[in-house]
Amino acid sequence: MCSFMRYGIFSDVHSNLEALEAVIKEYKKEAIDTYLCLGDVVGYAANPNECVDKVKRLARVTVCGNHDWASVGLFSANYFNPVAGEAINWTKHYLNDEAWVFLESLKTVYEFDDLTLVHGTLDNPADFNYMVDCYDASETFELLNSNVCFVGHTHVAGVFIQDQHKNIRYSNPSSLGLKDGNRCIVNVGSVGQPRDDNPAAAYCIYDTHKNEILIKRIGYDVGVTRNKIIDAGLPRFLGDRLIAGR
Ligand code: ZN
Has residue 159 been placed in a domain? Predict the structure, then answer.
């Protein structure tokens, strides 16, 4: 007997409560069985505690992102650009005890049924490297024990597909049918700070019955999030980039 699942898989919320609420509202229409989060719940925007609380209650598993660990002192803030570093320090001071304990508890990799979750790459996952090309993807495929892997981190949705001959190609379809013999690494994009010139929040659905992966987008009031960022004393740039989706 095998049981089919409909997963809701999302990443890089980055303390953006308005984007997270918009995504959850869409997910509620989708008959999702299990939610999985690929990390970077916090960092950049003004609602870290609220986002941690929602993700903690929603997701069966959350793996850690570099911002999550940096915000609780488990990853060096020196690896961040000055603006991101400023947001890390702001978040560190603003986190409540509950959020702190949750972020501290997150692990780098999770293997679950026939899928694997990691924020960046499977090679040295605690270094939080970016998977940007097929070579980067090949290193993760080498270490992958399942047919499907979900990642975030780049804030750009897309899929690396490896065929039986170990050839890898990249594409960014909004829906993908999984073929027997192929393996794939899916970047689900970012809920709270997309960087593909589209400000709408990105989220993923994986249906194991239809063997189908969907990347969806939902717009929300980006201006509200931007104003909260500025009012909180966070760098203005972090608000402005949301408007542009950069
Ligand atoms: Zn991120």
Answer: yes
- Per-residue pLDDT tens over the stretch 210-220: 999 999 999 99
Q: How far is the CA of 84 from the centre of ligand 1 (A)?
A: 10
> In whole angstroms, what is the distance from residue 27 CA to residue 204 CA?
9
According to DSSP, residue 179 is labeled: P
- CATH for 117: 3.60.21.10
Q: Assign 161 to helix, strand or coil.
A: strand
Q: How far is the CA of 242 from the centre of ligand 1 (A)?
A: 13
pLDDT averaged over 10-residue windows placed end to end, the chain, 246 residues: 85 98 98 98 98 98 98 92 95 98 98 93 97 97 97 98 96 92 97 98 97 97 98 97 96
Enclosing domain of residue 153:
6-244
Separation of CA 70 and ligand 1 centre (Å): 12
Domain count, the chain: 1
In the reported structure, the alpha carbon of residue 38 is separated from the centroid of ligand 1 by a whole-number distance in angstroms of: 9
Q: Are 131 and 137 in contact (CB under 8 A)?
A: yes
Å from CA of 7 to ligand 1 middle:
21
Question: Does 1 map to a domain?
Answer: no
What is the number of residues in the chain?
Answer: 246
Separation of CA 103 and ligand 1 centre (Å): 14
